Request: fold
Amino acid sequence: MKKLAISVLALSAAFAGQAFAATIEPVVIDEFESRVLELVNAERSSAGLSALAFDVHLQAAAEAHSLDMAVHADCFTHDSCDGTAWVTRMRSYYPTGGIGENIAAGYLTPEAVVTGWMNSAGHKANILNSSFLGIGIGYVYEGGSRYGTYWTQDFGTLAAAPVPEPVSYAMLLAGLGLLGAVARRHPRA
Reply:
């Protein structure tokens, strides 16, 4: 399956030591996850609701949870497979705002999983919750696992954290490079 990668810039700056570092953290969106987003937004449109926007933080949370369930044989639950409550896990990615989550396993296609969620009152309520503005969708296929496919939808009520444009990366990195050069030329006493 073809994967499309979107990168998120994570910055850390140690002003006391005049050191600056930038790292690129990948957030991967595959064709199945993109299709689930399309189908979910079609359901919301049919109900007169606004579309959910892709959110990089929710995407990272959803991907991590689907992978967690896939690699732990008997783990199919909202809580993390190590026993961490689902709210605690989600808050590590999405610290503020309202949250919700749908999970599924064993569905082979985006159409099948969205149909399954829409035929379940609780899952449908999350998909059609007008308070939710952002979404992340995690899909993992693990051939030797119990269910084979693992799906997570993570929802949030804050305006979606957009993926920065590549031009922004270049400008930001150039600015950090200049700051670093100035800091090296003019060290603090």
